[in-house]
Design goal:
The protein is an alpha/beta fold and 333 residues long. The protein contains seven helices and twelve strands.
Length: 333
Protein backbone atom coordinates (compact mmCIF):
# COMPACT_ATOMS: atom_id res chain seq x y z
CA UNK A 1 0.00 0.00 0.00
CA UNK A 2 1.46 3.34 -0.97
CA UNK A 3 1.49 6.44 1.20
CA UNK A 4 -1.22 8.24 -0.78
CA UNK A 5 -3.68 5.38 -0.39
CA UNK A 6 -3.10 5.21 3.38
CA UNK A 7 -3.69 8.95 3.77
CA UNK A 8 -7.07 8.75 2.02
CA UNK A 9 -8.25 5.92 4.31
CA UNK A 10 -7.14 7.76 7.45
CA UNK A 11 -8.95 10.93 6.38
CA UNK A 12 -12.17 8.97 5.70
CA UNK A 13 -12.04 7.25 9.13
CA UNK A 14 -11.51 10.54 11.01
CA UNK A 15 -14.29 12.23 9.07
CA UNK A 16 -16.76 9.42 9.97
CA UNK A 17 -15.93 9.62 13.69
CA UNK A 18 -16.36 13.37 13.68
CA UNK A 19 -19.79 13.04 12.07
CA UNK A 20 -20.86 10.38 14.58
CA UNK A 21 -19.86 12.54 17.55
CA UNK A 22 -21.66 15.62 16.20
CA UNK A 23 -24.90 13.76 15.29
CA UNK A 24 -27.70 14.18 17.90
CA UNK A 25 -28.78 11.07 19.83
CA UNK A 26 -32.13 9.65 18.75
CA UNK A 27 -34.57 7.43 20.71
CA UNK A 28 -36.06 4.29 19.26
CA UNK A 29 -39.49 5.21 20.73
CA UNK A 30 -39.75 9.00 20.83
CA UNK A 31 -42.33 10.45 23.23
CA UNK A 32 -45.17 12.30 21.50
CA UNK A 33 -45.12 16.01 22.01
CA UNK A 34 -48.01 17.77 23.75
CA UNK A 35 -49.34 18.95 20.43
CA UNK A 36 -49.42 15.34 19.17
CA UNK A 37 -51.45 13.95 22.18
CA UNK A 38 -55.03 13.31 21.12
CA UNK A 39 -57.74 14.80 23.34
CA UNK A 40 -61.45 14.09 23.36
CA UNK A 41 -64.36 16.37 24.03
CA UNK A 42 -65.71 16.16 27.57
CA UNK A 43 -69.24 14.86 28.10
CA UNK A 44 -71.76 16.90 30.06
CA UNK A 45 -75.22 15.50 30.90
CA UNK A 46 -77.92 17.91 32.11
CA UNK A 47 -81.30 16.78 33.44
CA UNK A 48 -83.79 19.53 34.22
CA UNK A 49 -87.22 18.84 35.73
CA UNK A 50 -89.87 21.55 35.68
CA UNK A 51 -87.31 24.33 35.44
CA UNK A 52 -85.08 23.06 38.22
CA UNK A 53 -87.86 22.56 40.78
CA UNK A 54 -87.00 18.92 41.55
CA UNK A 55 -83.25 18.59 41.81
CA UNK A 56 -83.33 15.38 43.83
CA UNK A 57 -85.35 13.52 41.22
CA UNK A 58 -83.23 15.02 38.43
CA UNK A 59 -80.08 13.63 40.07
CA UNK A 60 -81.74 10.23 40.42
CA UNK A 61 -82.60 10.14 36.73
CA UNK A 62 -79.10 11.26 35.78
CA UNK A 63 -77.57 8.38 37.74
CA UNK A 64 -79.94 5.87 36.15
CA UNK A 65 -79.00 6.59 32.52
CA UNK A 66 -75.86 4.87 31.22
CA UNK A 67 -74.84 7.98 29.28
CA UNK A 68 -73.83 9.67 32.54
CA UNK A 69 -71.19 7.01 33.16
CA UNK A 70 -69.11 8.06 30.14
CA UNK A 71 -66.20 10.39 30.93
CA UNK A 72 -65.85 11.84 27.44
CA UNK A 73 -66.99 11.57 23.84
CA UNK A 74 -64.11 9.34 22.73
CA UNK A 75 -66.43 7.04 20.80
CA UNK A 76 -69.22 9.14 19.21
CA UNK A 77 -71.16 6.08 18.04
CA UNK A 78 -71.34 4.79 21.62
CA UNK A 79 -72.38 8.22 22.89
CA UNK A 80 -75.16 8.41 20.30
CA UNK A 81 -76.39 4.91 21.16
CA UNK A 82 -76.61 5.60 24.90
CA UNK A 83 -78.15 9.01 24.29
CA UNK A 84 -80.94 7.43 22.24
CA UNK A 85 -81.64 4.93 25.04
CA UNK A 86 -81.73 7.54 27.80
CA UNK A 87 -85.30 8.69 27.24
CA UNK A 88 -86.75 5.18 27.61
CA UNK A 89 -84.75 4.60 30.79
CA UNK A 90 -86.03 7.83 32.31
CA UNK A 91 -89.62 7.03 31.33
CA UNK A 92 -89.36 3.66 33.09
CA UNK A 93 -88.04 5.30 36.25
CA UNK A 94 -90.72 7.98 36.22
CA UNK A 95 -93.52 5.47 35.71
CA UNK A 96 -92.29 3.48 38.68
CA UNK A 97 -92.66 6.68 40.71
CA UNK A 98 -96.21 7.29 39.48
CA UNK A 99 -95.58 9.66 36.55
CA UNK A 100 -97.09 8.00 33.49
CA UNK A 101 -97.44 11.03 31.20
CA UNK A 102 -94.24 13.09 31.36
CA UNK A 103 -93.00 15.13 28.40
CA UNK A 104 -89.27 14.82 27.65
CA UNK A 105 -87.35 17.12 25.29
CA UNK A 106 -83.76 16.13 24.57
CA UNK A 107 -80.85 17.58 22.61
CA UNK A 108 -77.28 16.44 21.87
CA UNK A 109 -74.77 19.18 20.97
CA UNK A 110 -71.15 18.71 19.98
CA UNK A 111 -68.27 21.20 19.85
CA UNK A 112 -64.49 20.68 20.02
CA UNK A 113 -64.34 21.09 23.81
CA UNK A 114 -67.63 19.61 25.10
CA UNK A 115 -70.41 17.29 24.05
CA UNK A 116 -73.56 18.23 25.93
CA UNK A 117 -76.71 16.09 26.33
CA UNK A 118 -79.67 18.02 27.70
CA UNK A 119 -82.94 16.50 28.90
CA UNK A 120 -85.80 18.81 29.88
CA UNK A 121 -88.72 17.08 31.59
CA UNK A 122 -92.25 18.18 32.37
CA UNK A 123 -93.48 15.62 34.91
CA UNK A 124 -97.19 16.23 34.50
CA UNK A 125 -99.66 14.92 37.06
CA UNK A 126 -98.87 11.74 39.01
CA UNK A 127 -101.15 8.72 38.90
CA UNK A 128 -103.19 8.27 42.09
CA UNK A 129 -104.91 5.19 43.48
CA UNK A 130 -108.60 5.18 42.61
CA UNK A 131 -109.55 1.79 44.06
CA UNK A 132 -107.68 -0.83 46.09
CA UNK A 133 -109.30 -4.27 45.98
CA UNK A 134 -107.53 -6.41 48.61
CA UNK A 135 -109.18 -9.73 49.49
CA UNK A 136 -108.00 -12.66 51.63
CA UNK A 137 -109.73 -16.03 51.34
CA UNK A 138 -109.05 -19.59 52.52
CA UNK A 139 -108.75 -21.13 55.99
CA UNK A 140 -106.61 -18.25 57.24
CA UNK A 141 -108.76 -15.36 56.07
CA UNK A 142 -109.70 -14.38 59.65
CA UNK A 143 -106.16 -14.13 61.02
CA UNK A 144 -105.59 -10.97 63.13
CA UNK A 145 -102.38 -10.41 61.13
CA UNK A 146 -104.34 -9.35 58.06
CA UNK A 147 -106.27 -6.68 59.91
CA UNK A 148 -103.10 -5.42 61.60
CA UNK A 149 -101.48 -5.12 58.19
CA UNK A 150 -104.41 -3.17 56.75
CA UNK A 151 -104.39 -0.70 59.63
CA UNK A 152 -100.70 -0.06 60.16
CA UNK A 153 -98.64 -1.23 57.17
CA UNK A 154 -100.69 -0.97 54.00
CA UNK A 155 -99.29 1.91 51.92
CA UNK A 156 -101.66 1.44 48.99
CA UNK A 157 -104.54 3.72 49.92
CA UNK A 158 -107.12 5.63 47.86
CA UNK A 159 -105.96 9.06 46.62
CA UNK A 160 -102.31 8.26 47.42
CA UNK A 161 -99.70 8.57 44.65
CA UNK A 162 -99.12 5.12 43.20
CA UNK A 163 -95.56 3.76 43.09
CA UNK A 164 -94.37 0.37 41.91
CA UNK A 165 -92.30 0.01 45.09
CA UNK A 166 -95.36 0.30 47.32
CA UNK A 167 -97.13 -2.29 45.19
CA UNK A 168 -94.29 -4.84 45.33
CA UNK A 169 -93.78 -4.18 49.06
CA UNK A 170 -97.45 -4.94 49.65
CA UNK A 171 -97.28 -8.21 47.72
CA UNK A 172 -94.12 -9.21 49.62
CA UNK A 173 -95.68 -8.36 52.98
CA UNK A 174 -98.79 -10.44 52.25
CA UNK A 175 -96.58 -13.33 51.19
CA UNK A 176 -94.56 -13.13 54.42
CA UNK A 177 -97.69 -13.08 56.57
CA UNK A 178 -99.09 -16.18 54.86
CA UNK A 179 -95.83 -18.13 55.23
CA UNK A 180 -95.16 -17.00 58.81
CA UNK A 181 -98.66 -18.07 59.86
CA UNK A 182 -98.24 -21.56 58.40
CA UNK A 183 -99.99 -21.17 55.03
CA UNK A 184 -97.15 -22.18 52.75
CA UNK A 185 -99.50 -23.24 49.94
CA UNK A 186 -100.94 -19.73 49.50
CA UNK A 187 -101.81 -18.51 46.02
CA UNK A 188 -102.49 -15.11 44.48
CA UNK A 189 -105.64 -15.70 42.47
CA UNK A 190 -105.45 -12.12 41.18
CA UNK A 191 -102.53 -9.72 41.34
CA UNK A 192 -102.53 -6.73 39.00
CA UNK A 193 -102.84 -2.98 38.65
CA UNK A 194 -104.45 -1.11 35.77
CA UNK A 195 -103.22 2.39 34.96
CA UNK A 196 -105.33 4.98 33.13
CA UNK A 197 -102.81 7.72 32.22
CA UNK A 198 -105.41 10.07 30.72
CA UNK A 199 -107.36 9.92 34.00
CA UNK A 200 -104.23 9.93 36.18
CA UNK A 201 -105.75 6.96 38.00
CA UNK A 202 -104.89 3.35 38.83
CA UNK A 203 -107.03 0.45 40.05
CA UNK A 204 -105.32 -2.28 42.11
CA UNK A 205 -106.55 -5.86 42.57
CA UNK A 206 -104.80 -8.25 44.97
CA UNK A 207 -106.60 -11.49 45.91
CA UNK A 208 -104.79 -14.05 48.07
CA UNK A 209 -106.06 -17.53 48.90
CA UNK A 210 -104.30 -18.89 52.00
CA UNK A 211 -105.33 -22.52 51.29
CA UNK A 212 -104.96 -24.85 54.32
CA UNK A 213 -102.51 -24.37 57.16
CA UNK A 214 -99.64 -26.59 58.28
CA UNK A 215 -98.97 -27.79 61.83
CA UNK A 216 -95.88 -28.50 63.88
CA UNK A 217 -94.54 -32.02 63.82
CA UNK A 218 -91.98 -33.67 66.10
CA UNK A 219 -88.96 -31.68 67.29
CA UNK A 220 -85.63 -33.53 67.10
CA UNK A 221 -82.38 -32.39 68.75
CA UNK A 222 -79.09 -33.42 67.13
CA UNK A 223 -75.46 -32.72 68.01
CA UNK A 224 -76.11 -32.27 71.74
CA UNK A 225 -73.73 -34.34 73.89
CA UNK A 226 -74.28 -32.90 77.37
CA UNK A 227 -77.96 -32.19 78.13
CA UNK A 228 -80.81 -34.66 77.85
CA UNK A 229 -83.66 -33.92 75.47
CA UNK A 230 -86.27 -33.77 78.23
CA UNK A 231 -84.51 -30.74 79.70
CA UNK A 232 -84.24 -29.05 76.29
CA UNK A 233 -87.94 -29.52 75.56
CA UNK A 234 -88.69 -27.05 78.34
CA UNK A 235 -87.63 -24.32 75.92
CA UNK A 236 -90.28 -25.32 73.34
CA UNK A 237 -93.54 -23.33 73.56
CA UNK A 238 -95.46 -25.37 70.98
CA UNK A 239 -96.62 -28.95 70.65
CA UNK A 240 -97.07 -31.32 67.70
CA UNK A 241 -100.39 -30.60 66.05
CA UNK A 242 -100.41 -26.87 66.82
CA UNK A 243 -100.55 -24.47 63.87
CA UNK A 244 -97.12 -23.79 62.44
CA UNK A 245 -95.80 -20.26 63.06
CA UNK A 246 -92.37 -18.87 62.26
CA UNK A 247 -92.53 -16.65 65.35
CA UNK A 248 -92.46 -19.73 67.60
CA UNK A 249 -89.39 -21.02 65.79
CA UNK A 250 -87.67 -17.70 66.50
CA UNK A 251 -88.75 -17.84 70.16
CA UNK A 252 -87.18 -21.29 70.52
CA UNK A 253 -83.94 -20.07 68.99
CA UNK A 254 -83.80 -17.04 71.32
CA UNK A 255 -84.45 -19.21 74.38
CA UNK A 256 -81.68 -21.64 73.48
CA UNK A 257 -79.26 -18.77 72.83
CA UNK A 258 -80.08 -17.18 76.19
CA UNK A 259 -79.43 -20.49 77.96
CA UNK A 260 -75.71 -20.08 77.09
CA UNK A 261 -75.36 -23.86 76.89
CA UNK A 262 -74.60 -23.88 73.19
CA UNK A 263 -72.09 -22.20 70.91
CA UNK A 264 -74.08 -22.80 67.71
CA UNK A 265 -77.81 -23.24 67.19
CA UNK A 266 -79.52 -23.99 63.89
CA UNK A 267 -83.26 -24.65 63.69
CA UNK A 268 -84.55 -25.98 60.38
CA UNK A 269 -88.19 -26.88 59.67
CA UNK A 270 -88.16 -29.94 57.42
CA UNK A 271 -90.75 -28.83 54.87
CA UNK A 272 -89.93 -31.62 52.43
CA UNK A 273 -90.55 -34.26 55.12
CA UNK A 274 -94.05 -33.10 56.10
CA UNK A 275 -96.70 -35.77 56.53
CA UNK A 276 -100.41 -35.03 56.90
CA UNK A 277 -99.46 -31.32 56.83
CA UNK A 278 -97.25 -31.73 59.92
CA UNK A 279 -93.77 -30.26 59.57
CA UNK A 280 -90.99 -31.86 61.67
CA UNK A 281 -88.42 -29.49 63.16
CA UNK A 282 -84.72 -30.30 63.45
CA UNK A 283 -82.63 -28.45 66.04
CA UNK A 284 -78.86 -28.78 65.50
CA UNK A 285 -76.77 -27.83 68.54
CA UNK A 286 -73.07 -27.40 69.15
CA UNK A 287 -71.97 -27.46 72.78
CA UNK A 288 -70.55 -24.28 74.29
CA UNK A 289 -67.51 -24.16 76.58
CA UNK A 290 -68.34 -25.90 79.87
CA UNK A 291 -66.48 -23.39 82.04
CA UNK A 292 -66.39 -19.61 81.84
CA UNK A 293 -63.96 -17.30 83.61
CA UNK A 294 -64.19 -13.54 84.06
CA UNK A 295 -61.76 -11.09 85.66
CA UNK A 296 -62.66 -7.49 86.41
CA UNK A 297 -60.58 -4.60 87.76
CA UNK A 298 -61.92 -1.67 89.76
CA UNK A 299 -61.45 0.78 92.59
CA UNK A 300 -63.63 1.49 95.63
CA UNK A 301 -63.32 4.13 98.37
CA UNK A 302 -63.59 1.39 101.03
CA UNK A 303 -61.62 -1.39 99.37
CA UNK A 304 -59.12 0.60 97.30
CA UNK A 305 -57.91 -1.22 94.23
CA UNK A 306 -59.83 -4.46 93.78
CA UNK A 307 -60.04 -7.52 91.56
CA UNK A 308 -63.22 -9.45 90.84
CA UNK A 309 -62.77 -13.09 89.86
CA UNK A 310 -65.78 -15.03 88.58
CA UNK A 311 -65.96 -18.72 87.77
CA UNK A 312 -69.03 -20.38 86.27
CA UNK A 313 -69.55 -24.06 85.65
CA UNK A 314 -72.32 -23.89 83.07
CA UNK A 315 -73.04 -27.58 83.16
CA UNK A 316 -72.73 -29.68 86.31
CA UNK A 317 -74.83 -32.53 84.93
CA UNK A 318 -77.10 -33.50 82.02
CA UNK A 319 -80.09 -31.88 83.74
CA UNK A 320 -78.74 -28.40 83.03
CA UNK A 321 -77.68 -27.52 86.58
CA UNK A 322 -74.90 -24.95 86.96
CA UNK A 323 -73.16 -22.94 89.63
CA UNK A 324 -71.15 -19.74 89.84
CA UNK A 325 -68.47 -18.51 92.27
CA UNK A 326 -67.59 -14.82 92.65
CA UNK A 327 -64.59 -13.57 94.63
CA UNK A 328 -63.61 -9.99 95.43
CA UNK A 329 -60.08 -9.08 96.46
CA UNK A 330 -59.34 -5.53 97.73
CA UNK A 331 -56.12 -3.95 98.97
CA UNK A 332 -57.88 -2.78 102.16
CA UNK A 333 -59.66 -6.08 102.80
Amino acid sequence: MNLLHFSVLAFAFLSFNSFAEDAPATSKNPEPTQSETKTFAGLDVIVDIDGGKNGELANKLKKEIALSHLKNDEFPAQTDFLYNRSEKTMLDVLRALGYYSPAITSQLERNPQTTRATFKIDLGKPVKIRTIDLKISGDGHNLPSWEQFRKFQLTLKPKAIFTHQNYTDTVSALTNIAVNEGYMDYQFTQREFKVYPHLHAVDIHIHLDTQKSYQFGKVTFIGNQQINDDFLRRYIDFAPGEQFQQSKILNLQKSLINSQYFGLIRIAPQYSKQQDRRIPVEVALEDSLKHRYEIGLGYGTDTGARVLFSFENRLVNQHGHNYQVNSLFGENA
